[in-house]
């Protein structure tokens, strides 16, 4: 699960789909990208803390 027990860990799109939405997309993993973009905007300046890890997924940097 995405939580404070995993500081600095990058989570793959597939992992986020499975853990947060409870299902697996085979070819629509860009759904996560859309949600991350919206989340970044809603978080304002804190949205910059969600880092894209190329080839892996996303990481929240404290």
Compact summary:
By secondary structure, the chain is of the alpha+beta class.
Describe the structure.
This protein has one domain: Winged helix-like DNA-binding domain superfamily/Winged helix DNA-binding domain (Arc Repressor Mutant, subunit A). The two termini are about 15 Å apart. It is built from two helices and three strands, in the order βααββ. The protein is globular. The model has no long low-confidence stretch (mean pLDDT about 85). It has a three-stranded antiparallel sheet. The chain has about 60 residues and is an alpha+beta fold.
Task: Give keywords.
single chain; 62 residues; alpha+beta; Arc Repressor Mutant, subunit A; 3-stranded antiparallel beta sheet; 2 helices
Blueprint (SSEs and pairs):
Layout: E1 11-12, H1 13-21, H2 30-43, E2 50-53, E3 57-60
Antiparallel strand pairs: 1-3, 2-3
Name the poorly predicted regions: none
The quaternary organization reads as single chain
Separation of termini?
17 Å
Q: Which percent band covers the strand fraction?
A: 15-25%
State the order of secondary-structure elements, H for helix, E for strand. Answer: EHHEE
Count of all domains? 1
**How do the strands line up in the largest sheet?**
1-3-2
Mean pLDDT: 83
Instruction: Please give the CATH class.
Output: Mainly Alpha
Shape: globular
Instruction: Count the DSSP helices.
Output: 2
Q: Gyration radius, to the nearest Å?
A: 11 Å
What profile does the largest beta sheet have?
3 strands, antiparallel
The CATH homologous superfamily is called Winged helix-like DNA-binding domain superfamily/Winged helix DNA-binding domain
Helix content estimate: 25-40%
Write the CATH fold name: Arc Repressor Mutant, subunit A
């Amino acid at each position: 699960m995405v939580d404070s027990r995993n500081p600095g860990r990058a989570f793959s799109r597939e992992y986020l789909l499975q853990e947060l939405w409870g299902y697996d997309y085979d070819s629509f993993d860009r759904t996560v990208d859309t949600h991350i973009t919206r989340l970044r905007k809603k978080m304002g300046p804190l949205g910059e803390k969600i880092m894209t890890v190329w080839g892996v997924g996303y990481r929240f940097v404290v």
